[in-house]
TrEMBL record:
Pathway: Protein modification; protein ubiquitination
Protein's name in the database: G2E3 ligase
InterPro entries: EPHD (IPR034732), HECT_dom (IPR000569), Hect_E3_ubiquitin_ligase (IPR035983), PHD-type_Zinc_Finger (IPR051188), PHD_PHF7/G2E3-like (IPR059102), PHF7/G2E3_ePHD (IPR042013), Znf_FYVE_PHD (IPR011011), Znf_PHD (IPR001965)
Keyword Transferase on entry: yes
This protein's encoding gene: G2e3_0
């Protein structure tokens, strides 16, 4: 026994080959589990054993290999040793086609490669590439490609091995590989049509077409403690400023420090005291759910009624009044209800429980639409997910900004020739990415004094990112890849472009937002680990040629196409003999890799080196999902909600609490809906000098003060907006429009 154990410890499973196919591969998804029996000196792939033509299960389940006796396996090996594989021409072909008069034999892996069909049911039959079963296609079948309902990539409606259609749904098409992976994961109890949920008819057809459905429970059901997380309740206070001295995670039941979860998503929470909630019976909804619900229903014109009510109270609407004890604390359904409930307040001399989630006393409640359309809901969730990622990016960039010193470097920039002047500035000997950057626009002598250094810097980086997006260094329409510009390679411009993007992110500029997913993955994971798609090819002629090869539906048309473009194939190093229609898949993949990745490998490496500036690329590689939100997606359009959430409202002690705050939030909603002569971008420029929100956020964070002044003041040094206190909303709006419009007009002139 000790000798046998010693042999087992020294036994290298990876080096052993299957006695039936002769391969050492250990790939359970393709060949089944690789079983090794040291005492019998036997290694076999489970699928090779199941599909072998000359062996049956003569034993019990616990005998031999799942009922296949060891002696029978050796007999089958001896039988197969006399048969030559019709594919690889080597001996040991244990599987034969069951079609009458067909004498083809092959190994299981060879059969998969040659697109044979193996039926994992009943007698475990096998069919060669000529006699395999096919699915019937009618003339009424749509010929244009549709989405695979599993991977959501396009799938051609062709009668080929790699494509399968659902027997129960007319418009459900799948990649064979996608279906096989889903079957292995779901098992016989959960594998069904992804569209109509049919099980019996769907499984029967898929088994006939060679999909292996294992007789076991789903993989997610077999994981130990797979659903353990569902038993945990979310207990964390997420309001802007938590009042609990024992921390955000502290939860004391039946007290004001008990945590109440969002009634809609349950993934956000608040202490009762932190949201001025008097009892547990009151409902609470988080900011994200509130904004989704506020935009989902059909709303009436509430604005005039709300303003009339506010004017009747002489502009002294109290935002601290609580709703009745049994009234559900939820969004009222008005277009700006989410604004009225969610100012980020930091009021002095107010009660400690009254500065967050403050409801308006004159709110007119309306019923909300309980069900949103699937499209709007998924879109809202997608935007919510992107916002969460961008918040994470903001925190990461702030960590990188700790490298920036107070020592300044001034760049003289000509806005009309942004690229040349920026390149000259970045290449000057005294320039350092860790120095604070100051921008002087040399062609703007009469520039307004209100344009601070920060405003000039925001404008500079915005112009620079816009130039890069439209420069010859990138190609493509929306999602761009690097182009091949030999002069740019010679002048090391790709490095400088990567460096500029890194500096822009850390110094408060905008993110690029125009990268393709393929380019981003090349930067993060390395080009050798990326598989490009046809949409990545910017050259129309090249894309059409590859598309013609990809959609060739028979061998003769494929060979004719390849004959016509042999020079094109030779230039890409892809000129090769093609003997089967399935060879086009590998050919198309190689062409895409050449034109999208291999061709620009030098610019790509230079660009990566530039992105290493200030440690940006390293953070991208550590947090790829987070950084893709700013590299591959355009910045979110400004909305009343985002602007409202951007500012923290202060109130001085001589002001009647937060008088005027409801006017400010109502004004934002009017601007968003187009009922104003200014835009949300104008408001942001008036206060900060920037028309966009930097990926790293503003420094300092924007604030609002309500003062006894005649006109609003935008302090760009402090990012502070000082607002006048007025008696009516009409007065407030007129003063805001007049001041912001005239100030920006003077600056532009």
């Amino acid at each position: 026994e000790e000798l046998r154990m010693s042999k087992m410890n020294n036994f290298d499973v990876q080096s052993t080959s299957c006695v039936l196919c002769g391969r050492t591969d250990d790939c359970p998804e393709k060949y089944g589990e690789k079983r090794t029996y040291v005492e019998c000196n036997l290694t076999v792939h489970y699928y090779c054993l199941l599909m072998s033509s000359g062996i049956w299960q003569r034993g019990e389940e616990d005998e031999g290999v799942d009922g296949f006796l060891i002696t029978d396996i050796r007999k089958e090996v001896n039988r197969a040793a006399k048969l030559k594989c019709n594919i690889c021409k080597k001996k040991g072909a244990s599987i034969g086609c069951v079609a009458p008069k067909c004498k083809r034999s092959y190994h299981f892996p060879c059969g998969l490669q040659r697109e044979c069909i193996f039926q994992f049911m009943e007698d475990f039959r096998s069919y060669c590439w000529e006699h395999r079963p096919v699915q019937e296609f009618t003339d009424k079948e749509p010929r244009e490609p549709s989405q695979c309902t599993i991977c959501l990539d396009l799938v051609e409606h062709l009668s080929v091995y790699t494509v399968l259609k659902s027997p129960c749904c007319k418009n459900a098409w799948f990649h064979r590989e996608c279906l096989q992976y889903q079957a292995l994961s779901a098992g016989i109890f959960f594998f069904r049509c992804t569209v109509c949920n049919n099980k019996d008819k769907f499984q029967k057809e898929m088994l006939r077409m060679g999909i292996h459905i294992p007789e076991r429970d789903a993989s997610w059901e077999l994981e130990e403690n797979a659903y353990q997380d569902l038993l945990h309740c979310y207990q964390h206070c997420d309001v802007k400023r938590c009042l609990c001295k024992k921390g955000r995670d502290y939860n004391e039941p039946d007290s004001k420090w008990e945590i109440k979860r969002c009634q809609y998503c349950g993934s956000r929470g608040t202490h009762l005291a932190c949201s001025s909630m008097k009892s547990w019976e009151q409902n609470w909804d988080c900011m994200e759910c509130r904004s989704i619900l506020a935009k989902s229903g059909q709303y009436s014109k509430r604005r005039k009624r709300a303003l009339a009510a506010s004017e009747n109270t002489n502009g002294t609407t109290c935002l601290l009044e609580e709703p009745p004890p049994k009234s559900p604390r939820q969004s009222s359904g008005s277009p700006r209800s989410f604004l009225l409930q969610s100012p980020k307040m930091m009021c002095q001399n107010l009660s400690p429980c009254s500065h967050l989630e403050l409801p308006a006393s004159n709110r007119v409640t309306m019923s909300l639409s309980p069900v949103m359309s699937n499209r709007n809901w998924s879109l809202s969730l997608r935007h919510k997910h992107l916002r969460e990622k961008r918040r994470e990016v903001c925190n990461i960039l702030k960590e990188l900004k700790a490298q920036v010193k107070t020592k300044t470097t001034r760049l003289n920039i000509n806005a009309e020739n942004i690229w040349s002047s920026a390149l000259k500035g970045f290449r000057q000997r005294i320039f350092s990415p860790t120095n604070t950057i100051e921008i002087n626009f040399s062609n703007c002598k009469n520039r307004s004094k209100t344009n601070t250094s920060a405003a000039s810097k925001h404008h500079f980086f915005q112009l620079l990112m816009l130039h890069l997006q439209n420069s010859s260094l990138f190609e493509g329409s929306s999602g761009k890849n690097l182009s091949l510009d030999f002069q740019a390679v010679k002048e090391n411009l790709y490095f400088e472009a990567g460096k500029m993007i890194a500096v822009s992110l850390v110094h408060g500029g905008p993110a690029p937002g125009f990268f393709s997913k393929t380019l981003f993955k090349c930067l993060v994971y390395g080009p050798e680990n990326v598989k490009p798609v046809l949409e990545d090819v910017a050259d129309i002629d090249v894309a059409q040629t590859i598309q013609t090869i990809k959609y060739a539906n028979n061998l003769s048309s494929l060979q004719s196409t390849l004959q016509d473009c042999c020079e094109f194939l030779a230039a890409a190093g892809c000129l090769r003999p093609v003997t089967a229609l399935c060879d086009k898949n590998m050919l198309v993949n190689d062409l895409l890799i050449y034109h999208v990745i291999k061709r620009i490998i030098l610019p790509l490496e230079s660009f990566r080196q530039g992105l290493k500036t200030l440690g940006v690329l390293e953070k991208m590689q550590m947090h790829p999902d987070v950084f893709s939100s700013i590299f591959c997606h355009k910045p979110e359009r400004l909305s009343a909600e985002t602007v409202c959430d951007l500012f923290t409202i202060h109130s001085s002690s001589d002001v009647n609490k937060v008088e005027g705050a409801d006017f400010w939030m109502g004004y934002l909603q009017d601007v968003e809906s187009g009922e104003s002569v200014v835009t949300l971008e104008d408001i942001l420029v008036f206060v900060t000098g920037s028309c966009y929100v930097p990926s790293i956020g503003f420094d300092p964070e924007p604030t609002i003060k309500f003062l006894h002044i005649r006109y609003p003041i935008g302090n760009r040094l402090l990012n502070c907006l000082e607002l006048p206190i007025t008696k009516t909303y009409h007065q407030f709006k007129n003063i805001m429009e007049l001041t912001i419009r005239n100030t920006l007009r003077v600056e532009r002139d």
